[in-house]
Design goal:
With 227 residues, the protein is an alpha/beta fold. It has 2 domains: 1-87 and 195-227, 3-Layer(aba) Sandwich (Rossmann fold); 88-163, no CATH class. The chain is built from 7 helices and 10 strands. The protein has helices spanning 48-55, 81-85, 103-113, 119-132, 148-159, 178-193, 205-210, and strands spanning 8-19, 22-33, 37-41, 63-68, 71-72, 88-91, 166-170, 197-201, 214-219, 222-226. The strands form 2 sheets. It has a 6-stranded mixed sheet with strand order 6-7-8-3-9-10, sandwiched between helices. A 4-stranded antiparallel sheet has the order 2-1-4-5, with helices on one face. It starts with 7 loop residues before the first strand and ends with a strand.
Length: 227
């Protein structure tokens, strides 16, 4: 899917990423626009997760410029990282749900942690989100009572709480069977059509062929655009 707007929401300029003095990626430059869908591919250890960590402020680049909207991630103060993350939605392969809390309680926990205080508004937003991801009837279920696909839908609902400008999805279908994978992809595509950009790290090349979009590849310490 091509960008529908000209607004740049993520920009890397000549970025160098290291972990414990080891170079992971160097001279990385690209842009992501509002409403765009971009795949991030590459072998295990090629730097996909490290790049995502830079975007959500968990890893600081050692050189270059990284901007997410008006945040400069090369020099962002720690106190401002929560404000950055409210602009982002993050979905992981392993769901990372709290096992002792219901679907609603998992969402409410994150909402209160990101500044929501009005109980009525929290309840209304949870109902809205669960309707959006097709889990309205599972609001009081615990994670162990859900299928893998339902757990990932809960994680996606959690990522959408604060209406992010971009959804960072790190192998979001990696633990799901093919049929459930298609359902999750269709949900993510729907979210994207509503205006949220998606940056999705994946090893699933047949999935990219089925849902084609722009592709960035981490290879040999660089990030290149695949045509």
């Amino acid at each position: 899917m091509t960008a529908q707007w000209s607004d740049v929401i993520v920009e890397f300029k000549n970025v160098h990423i290291q972990i414990r003095q080891k170079t992971i990626l160097e001279n990385v430059s690209f842009q992501i626009h509002k409403g765009e869908w971009v795949y991030l591919i590459g072998k295990t250890g090629a730097g996909k997760s490290s790049l995502l960590r830079v975007i959500f402020g968990d890893l600081r680049p050692v050189a270059g410029e990284v901007r997410v909207r008006h945040f400069d991630l090369a020099c962002i103060e720690r106190k401002n990282i929560p404000f950055l993350r409210r602009q982002l939605g993050i979905v992981f392969q392993d769901f990372q749900l709290l096992p002792d809390r219901t679907v609603a309680e998992n969402l409410a926990f994150v909402m209160r942690a990101t500044g929501w205080k009005n109980s009525k508004k929290i309840k209304e937003r949870i109902a809205e989100l669960l309707m959006q991801v097709g889990l309205a009837t599972k609001i009081h279920y615990y994670p162990h009572q859900l299928s893998g696909g339902e757990q990932q839908r809960t994680a996606i609902a959690r990522a959408l709480i604060n209406e992010p400008i971009i959804l960072l999805a790190d192998e979001p279908t990696g633990n799901l069977d093919p049929e459930i994978t298609l359902h999750i992809m269709e949900l993510l595509q729907k979210i994207n059509r509503n205006g949220t950009a998606v940056l999705m790290a994946t090893h699933d090349y047949p999935l990219i062929q089925r849902f084609p979009a722009r592709v960035l590849e981490c290879i040999a310490g660089r990030v290149i655009e695949r045509k």
